[in-house]
Design brief:
Elements: E1 18-22, H1 29-43, E2 46-53, H2 62-89, E3 96-101, H3 104-114, E4 118-125, H4 134-141, E5 151-155, H5 160-166
């Protein structure tokens, strides 16, 4: 008879698996978000949505820059609310949202460094020939050493059904 005690693995709390998705304006956002939401729903995790507002380029008068920034912030809030609702429809808990101002890759890695609950970065890869997207290009060329979490790259040409089959 074996006297070894059987230890059940601890159930993961939702905060133990936080899948971070970059909420940008790319076509492949859908695949990354769908994958992360379905993965969170089936694995007892949560979603975090990251939106970065980049500085306005060029020299504009102060008032014009402020108006443009305010409009961008409002549009970002609306987008994040829509994406949050979509995640909930897919069975994931209401996502956490993070809005930062600055350069996308810098703010993204700062967020990952400062939010210990983030466990996976989920990115969609562009289907454009030879161009996986600016963020993936950055990670491949310079940023792989900056990221403390695994990166899941979801092909932008996968259907929802194909993603479901992977999960």
């Amino acid at each position: 008879m074996n006297n070894k005690r059987t230890v059940k693995p601890k159930a993961l709390k939702p905060s133990n698996r936080l899948f971070l998705v970059v909420a940008d304006d790319s076509k492949e956002l859908h695949q990354a978000l769908y994958y992360a939401a379905r993965r969170a729903a089936t694995a007892g995790g949560e979603i975090a949505l990251f939106r970065c507002i980049e500085p306005v380029e060029g020299q504009l008068w102060g008032g014009v820059s402020e108006i443009m920034e305010a409009e961008t912030e409002q549009a970002s809030k609306i987008l994040l609310e829509e994406l949050s609702n979509y995640c909930e429809k897919l069975g994931a808990p209401k996502p956490r949202t993070f809005v930062r101002k600055g350069t996308v890759h810098e703010e993204l890695f700062n967020l990952i460094d400062n939010e210990e609950s983030i466990r996976v970065l989920v990115l969609g890869v562009s289907t454009e020939h030879g161009n996986p997207g600016p963020l993936i290009n950055y990670i491949i060329n310079k940023g792989s050493n900056e990221c403390r979490v695994p990166i899941t790259i979801v092909p932008g040409n996968l259907s929802d059904e194909q993603i479901d089959a992977l999960i």
